[in-house]
Amino acid sequence: MAIDVLIDSRPRIRLPRIVAGVAAVLLLVALCILGWLYWVARSALPQLEGTLQVPGLTASVTVLRDDHGIPTIDAANFNDLFFAQGYVTAQDRLFQMDGMRRYAAGELAEVAGPDALEHDRQQRILGIRLAAQKTIETISADDRSHFEAYARGVNAFIESHRNRLPIEFRILGYSPRLWTPEDSSVIGAYMVQELSTTPQQALVREKVLAKLGPELTADLYVNSSWRDRRPTVARPTLVQDTDDDDDSDSDSSVARLASEPSPEPVREEILPGLYRRETEQSWLRAQVADFFDDRPLVLGSNNWVVSGAHTVSGKPLLSNDMHLGHQMPNLWFEAHLRCSVPACGNFDVAGVTLPGHPYVIVGHNQRVAWGFTNLGPTVEDVYVESFNDAGQYLTPAGWKSPEQRQEVIHVKGRADVAMDVTVTRHGPIVTDLVPGETRKLALRWTLYDGVRTPFFAVNSAQNWEEFVRGFSELDAPGQNVVYADVEGNIGYHATGKVPIRASGDGSLPENGSDDAHEWTGYIPFDKLPSVFNPPSGIIATANSRITPEKYPYSISTQWDGPWRSARIYRVLESGRKFSVADMLSLESDIYSDLDRIFAEKFVYAVDHAKQPSVRAKAAAEILRQWDGRMTADSAAPTIAVRGRRELVRLLLEPKLGPGPDTYTVLLHSRGSKDRATPADGPQSEFRFSWKSSHWMMETVWLENVIQHQPRRWLPDDYPNYDELLNAAVERAAAAPDAPADLNSWKWGSANPVEIQHAILGRIPLLRRWTGPGLLPQSGSRLTVKAVSRTHGPSERMTVDLANFDHSTLNLVTGEAGNFLSPYYMDQWRAWYENSTLVWPFSPPAVQRASVHRIVLESAKEAPASPR
Predict the structure, then answer these.
(1) How far is CA 44 from the centre of its chain?
(2) How far is the C-alpha of 613 from the C-alpha of 627, rounded, in Å?
(3) How far is CA 149 from CA 63, 83, 154, 175, 191, in A?
(4) pLDDT per residue over 760-801, tens digit each?
């Protein structure tokens, strides 16, 4: 019997070969992509050496760069100087500049797609570009000339580099439009918005008041502390003057908490519901912010100045570290601007500049130095407008038709989106920006009055009188400004337009139908707190209360807590003679007085509790040995902060409802005679987040409660405050993310820093080169080195008035915006490790430090004129 055998003669393809082949193809594709990215990025690197023909200049401009890429720009006239500033800044930061103007104006969706649509809607309703237009219409002729010159410089760079744009433009597939003076004003408005307190706080306080009643609400929203160190007061006031009716910013909550317990208000039922923020779905959603958010303004800036009586040189030292949100590249661009000819008055100023905006914002010239912290004034009021069926709103003069403007948002890959914005006498109707709100809410904001720019005058100032005259025109954002000069003088002045109201202080929404809460003017500049050469020889601010007792005006309804300012004064009043290095040590200080206080209270409570758990005892032992420093490798800071957070939760849950993290509570606000609230009250979302502070003086309220232990705040489930404090430690130690060994619960991992490029950081092939990433860090929001995961010192500066060449300044990451530049992250190690960089200023020192020299020469063809 024959058997046929079929033999397959085709070659067998083995799986490993297929995998290897696919891997080779993928590797080749990856290498091609990486090679393309490298080529595009490298082609966009700026020219730093030689001679460059630049249309639009009237004379040659010399640009020296040091070994960190920091430019010194030397021109023969102001127009060429600010032209060159625009050109040089665009060399390093063009994409950042374009992104900032788009972010501020609400034009992101045009290049980023629908993910940015809601943000753009917000910015269009707020009318940021319209406010910028008003600013340009009102600035001086000199400023207008300088803004136009700056724009021409930016445009000269854009037009000559259309085929060598930064890589981000290539990835997003667009080319930037030409720059205008209005765009520079938009950048200024962006900073005003970033440094403004959110008007949502008034809406939140309204709900709190309706829920808790006036007494508990007054406890929560305390606005002063016995620890306050005000820059115009030599020593702290240890006892609050509670009979002082003229001190609009003072508060009697401390005295109330120490008084006899009073019955709690009747608690109405609420409907609790777990609310979780939407998970971020794209890189863009992580970059945009909600102006009407219940989170407080993130603060942390410090500035101080000491006279020569406190320094080793016998001349003043001035330090400043402005704490802002991290980004790549970092916010500030360091520059030195010179017009060293008699016609310019020997203009010579150095410091940090804002990409897209002319002038130096913080720094020094040949004679004076200055630094900022945010004043945080209440300059946005929410008015509840009454509309009829005809679309009119009620005013003291009767019904009036509002203005209507149409905004068109271009959306990449989709049809344009048209939207109507309604504007009353107070400002735009912003109801659509407040989830759950049904009332017609109008926003009044000092930004809408136009914002003058004082920086040319400040950059030119030669003494205190000229300096103060310049800053009298800083309308917004309101700042605390410290000053020093080469003659040995020091000073301080609060700045900004702060409304005077017929009644109220802006802390609650007001009735828009009458004039009972209208703005009647602004606090005169010469009435804002100020001091010149105080006897102590020490001035410091850190966003906390700056008004003295019996101050007749209300500046802010929410100062930051006193912890940083008190710590700064404690160090500066130690009697030492300070050097520049000592100033850096103070800027890097990580001692938290509040957390040390609460650590001691937690230990005492656990020691005296009836039945503390094993884990609570272990936590107490860790806290018992702690020195109060928020070091990255320590467990005690994590336990102290988590315990304090749980304590807030235990105190507020019985009043506001239970829930694990963030809550939505439907509250029915009762109307009143001076509030335009319907009698049955609106239903609106009320969000509290236990994950972070949700009002500015939370820590002062908490210290007051634990110090005075009023019965009205003690939850019914606890017999005394020791048991309550023990329960907070128990909860912290038993948290799901707490390790089995509490000693391994390191603070640096619980409070890391994360900095990454918004676009390039999402490309796996580039991520490791485009940002520091996620790293542990020391410090906290309450330390002088005020840090969080997303915020921290945006620069660290100390000016030595004895010798400017001994001054120091460093940014977070570096000057450049191109990740292939050696100056992209070359300052990161100094920032992260708390060191700094020498900051040369004199011509010989600048010459010695320079490693690049380029001459920008006038060319015949003029650049495109700004629109």
Answers:
(1) 30
(2) 24
(3) 17, 5, 9, 22, 22
(4) 999 887 888 999 999 999 999 999 999 999 999 999 999 999
Q: pLDDT digit string (tens) for 690-711?
A: 333 468 899 999 999 999 999 9
The tokens describing 360, both together, are 């130096």
What proportion of the chain, given as a percentage, has pLDDT over 70? Answer: 84
CB 827 within 8 A of CB 810: yes
Q: What is the pLDDT of residue 569?
A: 98
The encoded tokens of residue 442 equal 């109008």
Count Cβ atoms within 10 A of the Cβ of residue 715 and give its class: 0-12 exposed, 13-18 middle, 19 or more buried.
Answer: middle
**In angstroms, rounded to a whole number, what is the distance separating the alpha carbons of residues 477 and 816?**
27
Residues 6+ apart with CB under 8 A from 581: none
Q: What is the DSSP string of 324-354?
A: EE--SS-S-EEEEEEE-SGGGT-EEEEEEE-
Q: Tokens 């003057």 — which residue?
A: 241
48-72 pLDDT, tens digit per residue, is 999 999 999 999 999 999 999 999 9
Q: What is the mean pLDDT of the chain?
A: 88
How many angstroms separate the CA atoms of 188 and 78, rounded?
Answer: 21
792 backbone dihedrals φ, ψ, rounded to 5°: 175, -170
What are the pLDDT digits (tens) for 454-477? 999 999 999 999 999 999 999 999
Q: Which helix (H) or strand (E) holds 564?
A: helix 563-572
- Enumerate residues 6+ apart whose C-beta is below 8 A from 171: 759, 760
- Main-chain phi, psi angles of 464, to 5 degrees: -60, -45
List of E strands, 233-332: 271-274, 302-306, 317-321, 323-325
pLDDT at 538 over 50: yes
Res. 287: pLDDT tops 60: no
Give the pLDDT mean for 724-749. Answer: 97
Question: Is the pLDDT confidence value at 663 over 70?
Answer: no
**Amino acid symbol at 370:** W
pTM comes to 0.89
What is the C-alpha to C-alpha distance for residues 647 and 714, in angstroms, rounded to an integer? 11
| pLDDT score at 342 | 87
CA atoms 232, 373, 539, 545: torsion sign? positive
CB of 270 within 8 A of CB of 666?
Answer: yes
Pairing of strands 538-541, 808-811: unpaired
Q: Which residue has 């939370």 as its token pair?
A: 698
Structure tokens at 860: 């015949």
How, if at all, do strands 479-485 and 499-501 pair? unpaired
Per-residue pLDDT of 434-456, as tens digits, reads 998 999 999 999 999 989 999 99
- With 0-12 / 13-18 / 19 or more C-beta atoms within 10 angstroms meaning exposed / middle / buried, residue 404 is exposed
The residue type of 80 is: D
Rounded Cα gap, residues 294 and 433, in angstroms: 12
3-state class (DSSP) for residue 530? strand
Q: How far apart are CA 447 and CA 354, in angstroms?
A: 18
Whole-Å CA distances, 832 to 299, 407, 747, 794, 816: 19, 43, 16, 12, 18
Is residue 824 predicted with pLDDT exceeding 70?
yes
What is the predicted pLDDT for the residue at 38?
79
Tokens of 454: 């004082």
Query: Rounded CA gap, 71 and 443, in Å?
Result: 41
| 292 or 179, higher pLDDT | 179
The whole-angstrom distance between residue 727's C-alpha and the CA centroid of its chain comes to 34
Q: E strands within 474-610?
A: 479-485, 490-494, 499-501, 510-511, 519-522, 530-532, 538-541
For the chain, state the CA radius of gyration.
Answer: 29
Instruction: Look at residues 171, 182, 96 and name the one whose alpha carbon lies nearest to residue 412.
Output: 171
Distance CA 864, CA 800 (A): 42
Q: What is the dihedral of CA 137, 138, 142, 146, to 10 degrees?
A: -50
List, as one string, the DSSP characters of 88-102. Answer: HHHHHHHHHHHHHHH
